[in-house]
Amino acid sequence: MPQRHDKVGSVYLLHFDRPLDGGQRPRHYIGWALDVDERVAKHLAGDGSRLVRAVVAAGIGVTVARVWTDTTPVFERALKSHNFGPMDGGLCPLCAGVALEALPSLADLEARRRERKRLAQRERTRRMQLASGVV
Q1: More confident residue, 89 or 72
Q2: Is the same domain home to 40 and 90?
């Protein structure tokens, strides 16, 4: 029997109309399901993640902003662990105010993240060299 991480389903991005506390709380939820429609219905009925349950209970609107089909839970975890944000162009077409097709690809987002990481490492090295008098 296949493990959950081997199953092929869809990853979905839920967009909240406003943050839960009106401030810095998340405005999105990423999940994986074999049947997105069924899973989202469960979320909206209060039978989902604690975050979405709290958002729904607060009367905040929830929209399915994006769906990636033919994916595994490993892909879901990768999206969550990369923590793509506004600097990356984001993953949410509603927040970006653009058509889904205008968003950068995941490969582009990953390349930008790697470049930022490389530049940050280079800057740390430069500072260490300056501090030690090497440069």
Answers
A1: 72
A2: yes
